[in-house]
Known about the structure:
Elements: H1 2-22, E1 26-29, H2 31-48, H3 50-56, H4 58-63, H5 68-87, E2 93-96, H6 99-121
Antiparallel strand pairs: 1-2
Helix pairs in contact: 1-2, 1-6, 2-5, 5-6
Amino acid sequence: MKKILAYLIVNGIALYLVTSILSPDFMITGGVKGYLITAFILGIVNTLVKPILKLLSLPLMILTLGLFSIVINMLMLGLGKYLINVFAFEGVAMEVAGTLTYLWAAILLSIFNMILHGVLRK
């Protein structure tokens, strides 16, 4: 349970860093609660949907030497945004300006998560 909570907090921090860099094109409202709910939703989406998409897109992943994973990360952000809006958490919203913002957010989120999870493991 501690490990899950630690990863949730790390993902929330990574989301905060991404919003700090890409603001106003990428925004999460709701303060700390908004970042934690968004991190939770993205964590569930990445755990349940992402492995299936990676398996289905394996030929493209091989052909592009793994760069197609950025497109999958963009799709996971889009699905996360959709789910946050569907569940309509009070005071929590995720706004993304466009496709280029999804691209940069996916890249930055991957980098920050890799760095922060590496620090957490040590």
